[in-house]
Amino acid sequence: MNLGAPEIILILVALVLLFGAKKLPDLARGVGRSLRIFKAETSKMNDDDDERPTVVQAQAQAQPAPPQQIPAAAPAPQPSVEEQARQLEEQAARLRASAQADKRV
Q1: Domain interval for residue 84
Q2: Total number of domains in the chain
Q3: Mean pLDDT per 10-residue interval, the chain, length 105 residues
């Protein structure tokens, strides 16, 4: 799609009418932050994929071990729903802190 100068001016006028001149800088700032976060997360995902060997590679590299007798242990108790929620909140707080640190850099 090829936009000329008149089309861009018309879009800008429509944005000013819709959001007001005072809110446009905040809107642009929010969009910029969102794009930076999105790019950082996608690059992290790509880096994680590059570092992690595939299942086929891991199986090919693994040496077959002789079977061993493992004593049966009692299953570990499952954490309560409240404990799981607390752990998830802590993880979310750590992720927010790391995102803030990335934003500052």
Answers
A1: 5-57+80-104
A2: 1
A3: 84 84 84 91 80 56 59 63 82 84 73
